[in-house]
């Protein structure tokens, strides 16, 4: 016995729905849930954060499931963003302690970290990827990369470097990395190499999971360039961590 889809009491799968929400409607629904903590799945968001370190490809399988069930790749639950903001706050506290910042200087650094280093940089990077991939990498002109998904990919890729560089690395800074020894710049620069490689690889996995894109392996091209730059900094005596710590301190002091 066969049944017509029109007589089924079940809703249509997202892939077959005719009246899907617009991008603006999806963004509004997402932002409206930011302060509704009881509606957020923090356990699943924490699972995603952990697996971004150990098996990031599994995180993007969930994006595929969301596309099949909700007709969008981008997250519709702001729980990940809330936990990400908490990580940003904790790492900023660690930086302030290591750098011996005053409370006002800490507030300035936190505002810079949130609105400049994370949000502004994320908006720029996500927009660049969204434009270039839709223009040059699409297989099917009828489908495109969602901007919200591009921003999610940036947040996914940004989390491991944030924890590695702004948390784990700082515990070694004053006692070891801040000196002029070779081992100091080797450890500091290695932290940065790992962090940047994480960002590139997770970004590649994110866009590589989309079947509407081709040649996404080109996103891995910066990896050997980063390795070459890493070797040159060791030979040239450049301590990347020390240089950037001084840059962030100066930026905070100027703002204060």
From TrEMBL:
Keywords: Membrane, Transmembrane, Transmembrane helix
Membrane topology recorded in Swiss-Prot or TrEMBL: Multi-pass membrane protein
Protein's UniProt keywords contain Transmembrane: yes
One of the record's GO cellular component terms: Golgi membrane
InterPro entries per record: UNC-50
Transmembrane segments: 79-98, 110-133, 153-174, 186-207, 227-248
Chief localization: membrane
Subcellular location: Membrane
Annotated family: Belongs to the unc-50 family.
Protein name: Protein unc-50 homolog
Gene: LOC108743743
